[in-house]
């Protein structure tokens, strides 16, 4: 005969921990360990005796402040600004600049005659005499070749305005003689706005070139004008005040 059984049920017992329960004696002894840990102060007489005898047990040691002295050799690498300058210098040395102006400047009439003859031969392919130098340039190409050779060999740049007025090799040579050999060109730089010499320029009648006035002279003149204006205003004010008193 079969009978039904109840299913088995698993049971678990939960475990837990808590603080140890102390009894009355533990509560009475709770401050004893703290009292033992506190060091009792020494007797005053005993402490004075140890100090006088030199056996106090504590010696004061002077603390020395150690300063670390660093030198440039102690650092590894380079400063950022120094490294940037070095890289810029290295890159600049690799660049090949084409200097078309001669570093040896024209200074003697003999050099000018030699350079004019070399420029003429380079331009026309044959040497030229004095009569050939007086001949006009046949075209603009020959004029530019001659002028560029003269500028490169003499080391001085000719203004474009002058180049358009000079139609013969002799005229170009005369310009260098008047402006370079006399030192006139060294006083002026065409790229500066106030450095163009127009004192002996051939200008129309309605064009007047005034003399350049230095800033110091301008300020001095302006101050003089302001003083005169101030004096006139003061005199007018006094005159008006006197008229008001008279009325």
Automatic annotation (TrEMBL):
Gene Ontology CC annotation, any one: ribonucleoprotein complex
Localization: Mitochondrion
Main localization, broad class: mitochondrion
The keyword rRNA processing belongs to this UniProt entry's keyword annotation: no
Family: Belongs to the mitochondrion-specific ribosomal protein mL50 family.
Coiled-coil stretches: none
Alphabetical list of Pfam families matching this protein: Ribosomal_L50
Keywords: Mitochondrion, Ribonucleoprotein, Ribosomal protein
Species for this entry: Eremothecium gossypii (strain ATCC 10895 / CBS 109.51 / FGSC 9923 / NRRL Y-1056) (Yeast)
Name listed for the protein in its UniProt record: Large ribosomal subunit protein mL50
